[in-house]
Amino acid sequence: MKHLILLYIFIAGSLPAMAQETIYPAGKQQETVVLTNATIHVGNGQVIEKGVLTFTNGKITAVGTTAPAQAAGKVIDLQGKHVYPGIIAPVTNLGLTEVESVRATNDFKEVGEIDPSVRALVAYNTDSKVINTIRANGILLAQVTPEGGIISGSSSVVQLDAWNWEDAAYLKDGALHFYMPSLLPPPAPPKDRPASPNNKIKDATEKIDQVRAFFREAKVYLAQGRHAETNLKFEAVRRLFSKDEKLFVHCDIVKEMLVAVDFAKEFGFDVVIVGGTDAWRIAAMLKQANIAVVLKQPHSLPLMQDDDVDQPYKLAYQLQQAGVLFCLSNEGFWQQRNLPFEAGTASAYGLSKEEALSAVTINAAKILGIDKVTGTLETGKDANITISTGDIMDMRSSVITQAFIQGREISLDNKHKQLYERYKFKYGLK
Which of 5, 45, 126, 246 has the highest local Cβ count within 10 Å? Predict the structure, then answer.
């Protein structure tokens, strides 16, 4: 038995890829890295053929067709490969939930209707096994977002290669989230069934008025110098009024978006609409009000029965034509891995390839307030870089071979790949 136990220990040690616990964050970048002979997609619409990108100490130092004279370090020849900015996933509960059907693994929702003091960042689980499956498709940053109630709390942007939430924090508490109650009328009952009294719209309107009253009271409270007692909820929205934080309003139909526009006008908030299914109907108004849109779940059916069946697919192009700043998001957490392919779908419905890439890189960075440090492959920005054998937005050709977060080359291994190798071995398919 003793020898058998030692054999098990030896086998476990010789197959480290069988446990995700062997996947750990990369150390700080130690030497300059020069990527050569690559097709570089800068993220702002520019494409550099046979380009050279240099980064050191986590920052991009040069991008062009020739390497700087002083560049010396690790040279990686990427002949035939493509280099992209790391993709950014806005509005996701990644790291806040692990198994949807197991309540103990869900930490994205608090009790109560108005909870502006809740911070999603402190609940972010860097050990989630889902995170590594997302990184393998080029998503390197995410905005972890709380849910529940009407005002659910603040979201933060994290980088997806960290030991704990403190290491992961990329932008702390950048947005407060308002989940607007639906103002969509209920469907009409069948003719042979009497209409039942339905106060859904009335209840939704009352809740919206409750939120408006809360912000009015907070504005008065914050205008006062001193207080006998501290109101934590009012203090939690102070950064909204100073415009250090944005208000992300989750809504879809025109009536709801008009309420969001009114909030922006009355309180002077920087408002972002999340969802915006009907944003094409009031695109000119959104442009005039300088309100950005996070298009959520682009792969879906139309909201209204009389909409074009491909309306969700062409919405990105319609907003692009109207000059509205927008980006793409996805529902849930593990689904974020499909984000680059949804950008590819948008390119098939009107956007150019580079415009579609911007929708998941620099546009997202602008909306989240991190465009000065990431979103494009430009000198001075963080070296958040993805390398692919083909078009990153085409699932047929995209194979991510390397990725860097702030200059650190991260592991692309994950539980899915490990199970794939495990059962290849079991059935002798190697």
Answer: 246
Identify the structural domains of the chain with CATH numbers, from first to last.
16-86+376-430 (2.30.40.10), 87-188+198-374 (3.20.20.140)
List, for residues 167-188, the tens digit of each pLDDT value: 999 999 999 999 999 888 777 6
**262 three-state secondary structure:** helix
Taking the CA atoms of residue 86, residue 87, residue 91 and residue 92 in that order, the dihedral angle to the nearest 10 degrees is -90
Which residues are CB-contacts of 231 (< 8 A; sequence separation ≥ 6)? 221
Structure tokens that stand for 331 in this block = 């529902």
Alpha helical stretches, state H, 224-298: 232-236, 238-241, 254-267, 283-289
CB-CB contact of 124 with 157 (8 Å):
no
Q: Is residue 59 within 8 Å of residue 407, measured between CB atoms?
A: yes
What does the DSSP 8-state code read for residue 196?
P
246 contacts 268 by C-beta, under 8 angstroms: no
pLDDT digits (tens, 9 = 90+) for 304-340: 888 888 899 999 999 999 999 999 998 888 889 999 9
Query: Nearest 5°: CA angle at 273, between 342 and 363?
Result: 50
Beta strand ranges found along 110-254 (DSSP E): 139-144, 151-159, 169-179, 246-251
Report the run of H or E that residue 16 belongs to, with start and end. none
Burial of 44 (0-12, 13-18, 19+ CB in 10 A): middle
Q: CA angle, corner 302, sides to 298 and 308, nearest 5? A: 110
H or E, element range at 201: helix 200-223
